[in-house]
Amino acid sequence: MTIETSGAAATPAMATLTISFDPARVDRDRVHGWLSREAYWSAGIGRDVFERSLANSLVASAFMSDEQVAFARVVTDRATFAWLCDVFVAEPSRGRGVADG
Questions:
Q1: Comparing 9 with 53, which gets the higher pLDDT?
Q2: Are the beta carbons of 53 and 9 closer than 8 angstroms?
Q3: What sign for the dihedral angle of Cα 23, 28, 34, 36?
């Protein structure tokens, strides 16, 4: 599933923002870099653990054009419980409406 923002409702900063829930679209090298080197809550996370976390979660990625600028994942039983975690917006995209919602 992909959601695109455009038109009058989108701010200029979000004019080309696309949100995708397709795990195949995750830029795994980029997101692993963010989580292992920049996010305090997962500093040093190994690639194998990161890959398992993606395989066992719902994922959301934000793209400006074709560049991934944000990521989040949801741990859920798909019935009654969901936990939003690993929310990360790349430094250059912060404050531009990527995570507004």
A1: 53
A2: no
A3: positive
